[in-house]
Amino acid sequence: MSHLVEHMALLAGQRDPAALDSCFVDLFAELLSPRRLRVLRSHAAERRKWYVTRSHGHLEAMTSPEAPVRAEDAPLLLQCIQLGEPLTLPHRAPDLPVFTLVPLTGESDDIAIVEIATDTPIGTDLLRTVNAIQRFSMHLHALLDENERDSLTRLLNRKSFDETFVRAALNIDPVTLPPVHGEERRRLHMEGSHWLGLIDIDHFKRVNDVHGHLIGDEVLLLVAQLMKSTFRASDRLYRFGGEEFVVLLRCGNARGAEVAFERFRAQVEQTAFPRVEHLTVSIGFTAIEASDTPGSAFERADQAVYHAKGNGRNMAISHERLTAIGLLQNNDLDGGVEFF
């Protein structure tokens, strides 16, 4: 019982959803001694795409923990979220484990479930304890969600940016790409395995001045929805205020990052917005280095956005490319911007 209380105290002190999920995995692992635990996560725009963001234990002849969950399993996961309590799946065969799904969150923008594989069904008393822990999880996630999200768009806010950025700079952000080691890990560090993108809506002041702030809010909401549907569930999406959005993107090279940001730029350009109809965005992005502060990386992305604004708008371009062709100087200066 004392171990359980210690775990609950540790859970209550977490301020990051990913760290909170890890604590729940550790707690369920100690409580149930399962063959395997996995945290499956999705968001509103990808309810048929679930990604493994945490795993514990080993189960032979099963899908790699980094792979997306099979689409045919998605209805069961959604059923568990809607039910709001643990769901034990029918036992398929005597030689296979028993699977129990435990929702960590309610029906919010980001949803998470723990998949527990055990040799036998979880007993009634233990299941009651799991259910109590699960309800505690939902309350904690709801509090974090309310505190760390922009009230209009439901994207993450500036307050939640700093800690995630530090993990990205150190290349320890928990995402769904396969783990890399040795030479490949060194190469990713050199190329930049995380990217910070700054998205600015072109002529947004004109939208507010001509059509009013209600239409301006509709534009912001639609841009946020396009971000959720264009970027991956593992990418972190933020609204920094006004017409300014930020993306923390996990990608192994500059070309991949360029493709991702260009895809979003084109998606916005092709979307019909209410009353405004045509809208574009300017995007500047940069590789995140281990020595970066939030201010230094943001400053480089902002310089790239400023260049895009001054050269026709409606483009996605990296600070590194502008530096390479001599249009910007790489002074390696810390922008001195502290967000908190």
Describe this structure in words.
The protein has eleven helices and ten strands. By secondary structure, it is an alpha+beta fold. It has two domains: 147 residues, 2-Layer Sandwich (Beta-Lactamase); 167 residues, Reverse transcriptase/Diguanylate cyclase domain (Alpha-Beta Plaits). The strands form two sheets. The chain has a five-stranded antiparallel sheet, sandwiched between helices. A five-stranded mixed sheet has the order 7-8-6-9-10, sandwiched between helices. A hairpin with a 2-residue loop joins β7 and β8. α7 crosses α8 and α8 crosses α9. It is elongated and about 65 Å long. The two termini are 38 Å apart. 35% of the residues are buried. The C terminus is likely disordered.
Architecture blueprint of SSEs:
Layout: H1 2-12, H2 17-32, E1 36-43, E2 51-57, H3 74-83, E3 87-88, E4 98-103, E5 110-118, H4 124-148, H5 161-169, H6 182-191, E6 194-201, H7 204-211, H8 213-230, E7 236-241, E8 244-250, H9 254-269, E9 281-287, H10 294-310, E10 316-318, H11 319-324
Parallel strand pairs: 9-10
Antiparallel strand pairs: 1-2, 1-5, 3-4, 4-5, 6-8, 6-9, 7-8
